Amino acid sequence: MSEPFSVPVTVRGYETDVQGHLNQSVYLSYAEHARWSLLRAAGITQAGLIGSGVGPVALETTIRYRRELLAGDEVEVSCSFEWSEGKTFRVQQTIRKKDGTVAAEITAVGGLMDLKERRLVPNAGEVLKGLASDPSLL
Q1: Which of 4, 90, 104, 107 is most buried as measured by Cβ atoms within 10 A of its Cβ?
Q2: Tens digits of per-residue pLDDT, 54-71?
Q3: Bridge partner residues of 50 (DSSP)
Q4: Per-residue pLDDT, 2
Q5: DSSP string covering 9-52, please?
Q6: Separation between Cα atoms, residue 94 and residue 9, nearest integer Å
Q7: How far apart are CA 113 and CA 124, in angstroms?
Q8: What's 136's DSSP letter?
Q9: What's the chain's average pLDDT?
Q10: What's the half-sphere exposure (Cβ side, CA atoms, 13 Å) at 21?
Q11: How far apart are CA 109 and CA 76, in angstroms?
Q12: Tens-digit pLDDT profile for residues 87-119
């Protein structure tokens, strides 16, 4: 199995809390950045999604904090989709320091909403892959 898609991020000082740790909300921003980066790499844009009448929705997110991150730390944020035949899918993400230490694990449940009907579409993975220029990334 190949390595999951990942993007590099450097922790910026303004993203830290009073103890100097990465603020809890920023972990979600890093995860979102990696998800959109993966979609863009697969050839899916926000405009393309809207133009096709669908949009991704977050239904649940869990973060397991493993090790602290400090300003200047360089990390890789991975992203992989786990598709099902139902209306929802999972997104597995890991924030890993350069030395391999896992700083956080993020698991999300999402769906793809029909923007007109305001309902989740069935087989979201197939819909997204149909919109991608490189569906192998998904």
Answers
A1: 104
A2: 999 999 999 999 999 999
A3: none
A4: 64
A5: EE--GGGB-TTSBBPHHHHHHHHHHHHHHHHHHTT--HHHHHHT
A6: 12
A7: 9
A8: G
A9: 96
A10: 11
A11: 21
A12: 999 999 999 999 999 999 999 999 999 999 999
The 10 Å CB-count burial string (b at 16+, else e) for 6-20 is: bbebebeeebbeeee
Q: In terms of residues, how long is the chain?
A: 138
Which two structure tokens, joined as six digits, stand for 85?
A: 């035949």
Amino acid letter, residue 8: P
**Encoded amino acid at 61, one letter:** T
Neighbours of 45 (CB within 10 A): 12
Neighbours of 38 (CB within 10 A): 22
From residue 30, give the alpha-carbon distance in Å to each of 22, 46, 47, 105, 127.
11, 18, 21, 12, 25
Structure-block tokens of residue 45 = 């844009």
- Per-residue pLDDT of 6-59, as tens digits, reads 999 999 999 999 999 999 999 999 999 999 999 999 999 999 999 999 999 999
At 106, list the tokens: 């993020």
